[in-house]
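Incident log, structure service

09:12 report received: a user says their structure output differs between two submissions of the same chain.
09:20 pulled the input from the user's history:
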Amino acid sequence: MTFNAYPFFIFLAIVFPLYWLLPRRGQNLLVTISSFVFYGWWDWHFLPLLWFSTVIDYAAGLGIERSTSERKRKAWLAVSLVTQLGMLFVFKYLDFGITSMQSLLESLGFRPNLATLGLILPVGISFYTFQTLSYTIDVYRRQLRATHDLVEFSAFVTFFPQLVAGPIERAANLLGQFQRKRTFDSALAADGCRQMLYGLFLKTVVGDNCARVVERAFDMSQFEHVSGWTLLFAAYLFAFQIYGDFAGYSHIAIGCARLFGFDLMRNFAYPYLSRSPAEFWHRWHISLSTWFRDYVYIPLGGGRVSPVRRRWNVFVTFVLSGIWHGAGFGFLFWGVIHGACVALQWWPAGTKIDAPCGRGLVPKAKDLLQVALTFHLVCAAWVFFRSPTATVAVEVLGRIGGSIGDASWAQFTTALLRYPEPVVSIFALVAVLMAIEWVQRNRPHGLVMERMPRAARWCIYFTTAFAIMTFGRVEQVPFIYFQF
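09:34 re-ran on a clean worker, output below:
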């Protein structure tokens, strides 16, 4: 079941009223059962794996808290780490490792016949394993008390709005909310509906229409005939496809959680208004970047070490973040590019996320230049993320560079206007999105308009809904991050 499919809204219409008729423990049980239904709608065969992951870390948390010796505490933590990371490795990386070993041995002159397992990647496994790991690590660090309520813990792990693609929540925030009484807040629910509407607009109207161009450009069956201009358009639009897709999911998840009285962490903060790579990572997939900061970067020494070691720690953290996204050298190089840029700190801009580019309506020239430079670096890195192999990514960048180097403005305009898909309309849509996000950049999402007259607000809500129904590709394009 996905947020951009009609069955989800039927599911929501059933679960929502039942939830608010129950006491707290009944609500937690309903969330757990509903979450397993939500997840099993995709493929029920992986429900035992989700339950196994949940039970293991529930037991590990209790074991860590009850152990009187440090050796036993470490043993229970090791059970959690080995189980969760082991599942992640087997399903996500084992086949890639076997294939890579096969290629390496063949390049050395051997003729091995290594068989892959052909495993299907369970949707959301990268997200819920990291979420449960943060719980056991925090219990081990004595930053959190272990819960003794299995239903409560299961609801935390499987909470359906953010189960399959985040935000990756911490137990200190989300588990604590399952432990407290919740009362219906109409203002919170109304804002949740607005945020869900904005998320659906990002996903179905922006992201999925950009996908039309991207899919055509990266179709490997026709790749040798694709021009550099086409690849340039696709590189730009993939940046907005993945943003609309993933930020859209996060907004829907956060808004949906508010309907049930929960406050999830912010996951995107207008990242394409960033003035440096470091600021971009304060704004993009915030729940993951802070997870790697707290559980990888800081344990490596963080900023408490020498400048050289600190830069190395930053670089390693980003490389591991790239590997987390998928089994492929393209993801590795994507992490290397961002890690090198952030670690070297040569970008002349700050990293504050509270007021991107100041609070005025008209941007400063310096800010615009920094935003443009950062955006183009991010787009170049996205090519490695989107391409099926690193070799293809290098070829894509080479073709783009060749077209730009040999081109005139007339050639660019001709390529844009004669493209089979309505590229001009899609770029116009992207421009509208960026204008909205610029105006709303100091608010949590694009439909927070408390200072506008009520009639104007409702006009915008209906216009957004009309755009989704008219131009949105509802139920046509799966969420990109489901494959991670």
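09:41 both user submissions now match this output. Likely a transient worker issue. Closing.
09:42 reviewer note: The radius of gyration is 23 Å. The chain is about 65% helix and 0% strand.
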